[in-house]
Specification:
By secondary structure, the chain is α/β, with parallel strands linked by helices. About 40% of the residues lie in helices and about 15% in strands. Helix 1 crosses helix 9 and helix 10 crosses helix 12.
Length: about 400
């Protein structure tokens, strides 16, 4: 019996012309988690050790620190940005990743750091969150104490998440270096600045600092709200390429939780970060650290706009521009042709122009004969290739699901 097929591209009559297929997303998430679990069981059996992830005390709640991350890989048809952005974007998740009580947080702040420590020690600040923030360090002490590579490496290993005041986030790459920014523990900006107050005229101003060296600090409840908001978001690190990877779940999640996070991240990327939105999306996959990427959405077309595929009219315009710009490049000395009886060059110049024009006409005719046909054949070939790729991917998912 042939496997049941599922379309990897969904179009709707209203709203966005494209959207994720929820059954396909759930199917890929189930197959991926099954694959990760089978690989974990195989490694445990080979090493003759017993898994310590599930215990009697944590039968309902799994330890996220031992779970493997699930990544969403989104590819585009054109580059997303022109240059690398060190400040990551944020997309709220329905099922956050950093909810474990054992997650340790390091908070990097403006000077003086005593302001932030006083806020964390305030009675109105949630104790459950304060217990997870194990270290608060100011920017000046970070420069002085963590200059050697070994100390930076030790600081990186001691904490799970690094948060930094948004006012100093651009200063950290030079201070922390590649030790932090080549991995998945890049400092995440969090707003510790008080909300702006409105004047009667409608202008918005920031409260002035109490001293010359200090900067305005938000009240405890606002700081707690901003930190919780940051921890519940997926981080988007953009670079000048046509690929972006976002961590959307853990192997301890259920397939439905991963599917919900995938939908939230894809819609957030298409609406906020990707130029031209869904029209620029080429494919969406999910994968684990050591698994193949399973497709959940593939584009039918490899071009962003219809103008990217040359039709007859567009081809004529491009050919005309190419001919005009390529006359001098393709020009070469002509052989002596028709000369006048007196040996003067006036008639020879006119004859040279005629010969050059005849050559251009012959070249134009040759291009007209095959260009339109070649473009149509290429477009059909691309469509057939994408259709074959989707069939192969669906067969792969079905095979993983059966196993």
């Amino acid at each position: 019996m042939a496997p049941e097929t599922t379309a990897l591209t969904s179009k709707v009559s209203s709203g966005s012309p494209y959207q994720l297929d929820q059954p396909q997303t759930l199917k890929a998430s189930t197959a991926l988690l099954k694959r990760i679990k089978s690989e974990t069981d195989r490694k445990e059996a080979a090493s003759a050790t017993k898994s310590l992830i599930r215990t009697e005390d944590s039968s309902d709640e799994k330890d996220s620190s031992d779970a493997e991350p699930i990544w969403l890989v989104l590819t585009t048809k054109r580059n997303i940005v022109d240059q690398r952005r060190l400040k990551p974007g944020k997309i709220p998740l329905p099922h956050p990743l950093n909810t474990s009580s054992t997650t340790t947080i390091c908070l990097i702040t403006c000077d003086p750091q005593r302001q932030v420590k006083d806020v964390l020690a305030h009675p109105s600040f949630p104790t459950s969150l304060a217990s997870r923030i194990t270290k608060v360090i100011g920017i000046s002490k970070l420069k002085a104490r963590y200059q050697p590579f070994e100390s930076k490496r030790q600081l990186l290993d001691e904490h799970d998440v690094f948060l930094a005041d948004a006012r100093i986030i651009t200063m950290l790459p030079k201070i922390l270096g590649k030790t932090f920014y080549k991995g998945s523990k890049k400092p995440v900006p969090v707003s510790l600045e008080p909300y702006r107050e409105s004047k009667a005229e409608g202008k918005r101003v920031v409260p002035k600092p109490t001293t010359e060296k200090s900067k305005p600090m938000a009240p405890p409840l606002q700081v707690a709200k901003e930190i919780e908001k940051t921890l519940s978001c997926a981080l988007v690190h953009l670079s000048p390429s046509n690929n972006v990877s976002v961590r959307v779940g853990l192997s301890s999640f259920t397939p439905q939780q991963i599917a919900d996070n995938v939908a939230a991240v894809v819609n957030g990327l298409a609406a906020k970060f990707i130029p031209k939105g869904w029209r620029n999306v080429r494919g969406v996959h999910v994968k684990g650290p050591n698994t193949m990427a399973l497709p959940i959405w593939l584009a039918d077309e490899l071009w962003v706009d219809e103008a990217d595929v040359l039709e007859d009219a567009e081809a004529e315009k491009i050919k005309a521009v190419g001919m005009k710009g390529g006359t001098k490049r393709n020009s070469r000395p002509l052989d002596k042709a028709v000369e006048n009886e007196d040996g003067k060059g006036g008639k020879r110049e006119r004859s040279t122009d005629v010969i050059r024009e005849e050559r251009k006409k012959r070249k134009r005719v040759d291009q007209d004969q095959g260009l339109s046909k070649q473009m149509k054949e290429r477009r059909e070939k691309l469509r057939e290739q994408m259709k074959a790729d989707r069939e192969d991917m669906r067969g792969t998912i079905d095979a993983v699901t059966v196993k």
